[in-house]
Amino acid sequence: MSVQEFVSADRDELFARLTTALFEEIRNNSKEHIVLGICGGRSIVGVLQAMAARRDELEVSVWRKLQIFSVDERVVPLDHEDSNFRLVHENFLREAVESDLLTEDQLHPFEAEVSTADVKAAEYGRLLDSFGGCFDIVFLGVGEDGHVAALFPDAAWTSSDESRFLTMTESPKPPANRMSASRELITRSGVAVGLFLGEAKRDALRCYRDTEILESQCPVKMINAVEEVIIVRDID
To answer: pLDDT tens across 55-77, in order?
Structure first.
C-alpha cells in the first residue's frame, strides 16, 4: 500500500493539490473506462468543483472515459432532499453535462424504491461489471464515527462478504433504507481517497490512526487494504 497525505486548513489549496494527484492518476490509466465512485456529502462537491475548474488540463477524450457511480445512496427518489446524487448533480454533474464536459451516458445514479432495492442493487452491480467491476478511484467521506459509505461501526452488513452492492433497512443514521458499496468492492478499488474534513472528524482521524482499534469499530480502516490511498484533511 502506498499512502499520500494532503493537509491544509485552506480547502482551496487542499482540493487543488488533490486535483493534481487525481489528474495524474487519470492520465496514467490506460483503461477504456475509468470508474469514479462518488460518496455523499458536501466534501465531494468541493473536490469535483476543483476538478472542473481545471478541466482544460485533461483532454476531452479523457473526460469522456469517466463513468460516475454512487458509493452509497439513500433509497429515495433522485430529486428527494436526502438523495446523495441530487446534491452532486445540482452542484457539479448538471453543469458538467450542460458544458459538454460529461455526457448523460456517463452518469449512473442508483434509483430504487424500498420494495425493489435488493433487485436494483444487483442490477447496479452488473452495470458496474460492464465497466470493469471496480472503482478506479473511490471517494469516501469519513463520518464522525469513522464510517464510510453506509458501512457503520459494528453493523452486521459492514463485514458482509457481498462482492458488489448491498442494501439495508436499519441504518443507524437516518434514513434507515440505504444502498452501499460493500467492503469487498471498496477494497478492490485502485485508489481510495479518504476525506477527513471538518473539526468534527478529529475523533475519526484519531481512531483511524490508532492501531489498537479494530476495523469493525472504525470502518474507514478498510482503506488500508487498497493499493493506493490518499488521505485529505484540514485538521492538524
So the answer is: 999 999 999 999 999 999 999 99
How does pLDDT run across 8-57, given as a tens digit for each residue? 999 999 999 999 999 999 999 999 999 999 998 888 999 999 999 999 99
Q: Where are the domains of the chain?
A: 2-223
Amino acid code (one letter) for 147 = H
CB atoms within 10 A of CB 175: 12
Angstrom distance (rounded) from CA 13 to CA 58: 19
CATH number of 2-223: 3.40.50.1360
CB 185 within 8 A of CB 135: yes
Rounded to 5 degrees, φ, ψ at 106 are -90, -10
